């Protein structure tokens, strides 16, 4: 069993101020796979102090020097990517092939995206012939990241923060902390100056709250639940620090009558990916009545034929959900759905042959109406709700009838309709006809899905202050 009790503070691995062991559970087996320590106020204070002390010098380093270190970090990341894949597979249950290709791959892809965006990024912009606008690092940034896509979220925060001259304190999820600890090793190996990057493990009520309210933290960037995002915003309000939030979602996948014949199949596969543990998953499938029965049958077939198994197995199956608490929450929502709608695949309990581990049956509900619990609450598991519609206006109204606004999806061969509907969907992202987003595309949401954007130029700007300076030109 791994012991990862130390924190990375001021360029060194240090013991916690007070012992507070926490078991990391492998969700495939329900067995303890590691032990970490949860930090306390003294650890948080030490990490913030290190970041504050490093800020003056780091913020004045050249763009070229920061680029060099990020490129070195990418080299280390790629050289040790199998370690990272194994860590994420073990801690949060991503099947090893998915972990290698997508969990690890998301991280390296975003590093490339930031390096590309950084090439032509200017921290000085002419406003008039004599006035200059400067973009300057905001300061010490607390990065609080989730367990479902660990490297995706750590890199979307840590790389742009450090690239723009900020110093950081990372608190990864205590449920899946091993990847964060490994990333700290990568940063150290790459040679970043002491104090630029710091890591303290802890839970939300502890280190998370301490960072959010800390007077020496200038910004909090958080990814997680809407409930936690609200708590962080309240904790940060007393010091008026900037808060960037990437929260929950309840994405609508609108399948019009002229959609691709396999649109429903692709939508179900996408919903179940990563065991449904993605904030941008298309969990509400809105289908035109002329295609409705066909879509229900197709989605049920996908659910029935989606293999569920241990994360250590190679293949295209889905693994367990991350924890017992998550498993119980999903089971409760499935049970609620069975009292509201028509169950056409999956249901309660583990899949056949799996008696241990937090495995959930891929589940499909039909005849769902948008006022049902399963259509409004974020399940964060492999559960799909299918809703019929008759008109374009009805589809738009249903899609927008949610407190969330992260990602919506449109399936139609009519270009004018696709553009028209995309403009009216209240979400930060709209994916159409399965066309993925380009490198550096802004990731973020409307409404209770949060604020701010991650990725590319938008992600760099998130960590910058704007300063106007008059009389810049020589007289």
Could you explain the architecture of this structure?
By secondary structure, the protein is of the alpha/beta class. The protein folds into two domains: 2-247 and 449-469, 3-Layer(aba) Sandwich (Aldehyde Dehydrogenase, Chain A, domain 1), CATH 3.40.605.10; 252-438, Aldehyde Dehydrogenase, Chain A, domain 2, CATH 3.40.309. The protein is 40% helix and 21% strand. It has 15 helices and 23 strands. The strands form six sheets. It has a seven-stranded mixed sheet with strand order 15-16-17-14-13-19-20, with helices on both faces. A six-stranded mixed sheet has the order 10-9-8-11-12-22, sandwiched between helices. A three-stranded mixed sheet has the order 1-5-4, covered by helices on one side. Strand 16, helix 12 (373-376) and strand 17 (383-389) form a beta-alpha-beta unit. The protein is globular and about 70 Å long. The model has no long low-confidence stretch (mean pLDDT 98).
Quote the CATH topology of the largest domain.
Aldehyde Dehydrogenase, Chain A, domain 1
The number of helical elements comes to 15
Low-confidence stretches: none
CATH superfamily of the largest domain: Aldehyde Dehydrogenase, Chain A, domain 1
* Largest sheet strand order: 15-16-17-14-13-19-20
CATH C-level category of the largest domain? Alpha Beta
- SS elements, strand count: 23
């Amino acid at each position: 069993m791994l012991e990862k009790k130390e924190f990375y503070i001021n360029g060194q691995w240090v013991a916690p101020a007070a012992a507070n062991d926490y078991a990391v559970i492998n969700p495939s087996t329900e067995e303890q796979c590691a032990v970490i320590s949860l930090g306390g106020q003294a650890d948080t204070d030490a990490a913030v102090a290190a970041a504050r002390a490093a800020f003056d010098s780091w913020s004045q380093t050249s763009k070229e020097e920061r680029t060099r270190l990020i490129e070195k970090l990418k080299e280390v990341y790629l050289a040790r990517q199998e370690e990272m894949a194994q860590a994420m597979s073990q801690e949060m249950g991503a099947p090893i092939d998915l972990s290698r290709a997508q969990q690890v791959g998301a991280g390296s892809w975003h590093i490339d995206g930031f390096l590309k965006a950084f090439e032509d990024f200017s921290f000085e912009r002419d406003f008039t012939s004599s006035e200059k606008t400067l973009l300057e690092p905001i300061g010490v940034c607390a990065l609080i990241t989730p367990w479902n896509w660990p490297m995706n979220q750590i890199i979307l925060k840590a790389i742009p923060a450090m690239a723009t001259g900020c110093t950081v304190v990372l608190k990864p999820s205590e449920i899946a902390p091993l990847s964060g600890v490994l990333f700290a090793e990568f940063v150290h190996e790459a040679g970043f100056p002491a104090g630029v990057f710091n890591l303290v493990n802890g839970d939300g009520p502890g280190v998370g709250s301490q960072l959010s309210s800390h007077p020496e933290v200038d910004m909090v960037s958080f990814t997680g639940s809407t409930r936690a995002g609200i708590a962080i915003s309240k904790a940060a309000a007393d010091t008026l620090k900037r808060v960037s939030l990437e929260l929950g979602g309840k994405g609508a996948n609108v399948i019009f009558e002229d959609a691709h014949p396999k649109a429903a199949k692709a939508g179900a596969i996408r919903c179940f990916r990563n065991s449904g543990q993605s904030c941008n998953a298309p969990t509400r499938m809105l289908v035109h009545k002329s295609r409705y029965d066909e879509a229900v049958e197709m989605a049920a077939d996908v659910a029935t034929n989606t293999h569920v198994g241990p994360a250590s197995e190679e293949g295209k199956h889905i693994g367990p959900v991350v924890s017992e608490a998550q498993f119980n929450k999903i089971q409760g929502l499935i049970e609620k759905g069975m009292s509201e709608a028509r169950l056409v695949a999956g249901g309660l309990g583990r899949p056949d042959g799996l008696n241990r581990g937090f495995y959930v049956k891929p589940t499909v509900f039909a005849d769902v109406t948008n006022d049902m619990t399963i259509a409004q609450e974020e399940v964060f598991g492999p559960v799909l709700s299918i809703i019929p519609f008759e008109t374009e206006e009805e589809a738009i109204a249903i899609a927008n009838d949610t407190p969330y606004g992260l990602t919506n999806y449109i399936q139609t061969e009519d270009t004018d309709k696709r553009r028209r509907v995309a403009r009216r969907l209240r979400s930060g992202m709209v994916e159409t006809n399965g066309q993925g987003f380009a490198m550096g595309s802004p990731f973020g949401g409307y409404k209770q899905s949060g604020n701010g954007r991650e990725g590319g130029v938008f992600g760099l700007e998130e960590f910058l202050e704007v300063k106007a300076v008059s009389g810049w030109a020589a007289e």
